[in-house]
Write a structure and sequence with these properties.
Rossmann fold; 9 helices; single chain; alpha/beta; 6-stranded antiparallel barrel; Elongation Factor Tu (Ef-tu), domain 3
Amino acid sequence: MAEKEAEQAEKGQAVTISLNREVDVSRGCVFVNGTELTVSNMFTAAILWMDDLELKQGKNYWIQIGTKMLPASIMNIKYRIDIGTGEHIAATKLYKNEIAVCDIVLSSEAVYSKFEDHREMGSFILIDRVTNMTSACGVVEHSLRRSENIVWQKLDITRQARAEKMEQKPVTLWFTGLSGAGKSALANEIEKRLSVSGKYTMLLDGDNIRMGLNKDLGFEPEDRIENIRRIAEVAKLMNDAGLIVLTSFIAPFISDRRQARDIIGADSFIEIYVSTPLEECERRDVKGLYQKAREGKIPNFTGISSPYEVPEEADVIIDTSEHSLQESVDLVLKALEDRM
């Protein structure tokens, strides 16, 4: 419409809308007049699974509703629908061409509607964050009431205030790599070095966390996804407390590490890939876990019967078979100086 004022515009025309007050408007925002839409981050939806890979509860995807795209995950598969009989069947996984009703949680609030009320704002697609394939299409059935009844409580003492008091930048050093790669030893030594220099830290180790907070989780893919999600949430809370957090977990899947980065925040997430080769990890295996895995006594063992996906976005890569522990610490801390 150029610079002219206009009373109306038609579909296909490019227009500029000038607001009467300062509002943060970006792609995905919605103007509403004469209709009601929901703003929240949780809803129940019916989905058609289209991916060759099975759907696992807790895995992180991109969701696109209208023109809004943001991270989302399937919290819970309520039931699968038998397309022949309409029967509702309990399920924890979905396979290609299956239909199910699920609870979905978004990384932040979005605008949507029940599909029966608004077709455009009530339909969506899920996109795999690694392959960029469209994994599912779905329709919103209803909002989850808990998402509307829970409001984030703003606190007077902020993360920034705590960080300034401690005189440090709260970040999470996320160590990932195969079992036996040297993650725990490296993280432990770096924490000691940071502590000596006056920093306030907390080390979260995989085995220790599984003996407490995550003792209810096994090693199936969906359990591993939930294990990493919980750790990321804990690390974020500790960062909010002003602490420098070090985490030592195998975290074998790229999608899970990306979800951890999203939860913690890209500015606070430093991924350290301990790239020690499998052969060296097996040689160091004092617990005999690799041997048991090769004998079939330990299912879903990363590197043997379950894959490890090499990081694509690692901030630091260190092979502890080529450097001593102290040399490895020096190399990691030098690489982190600018970030911390």
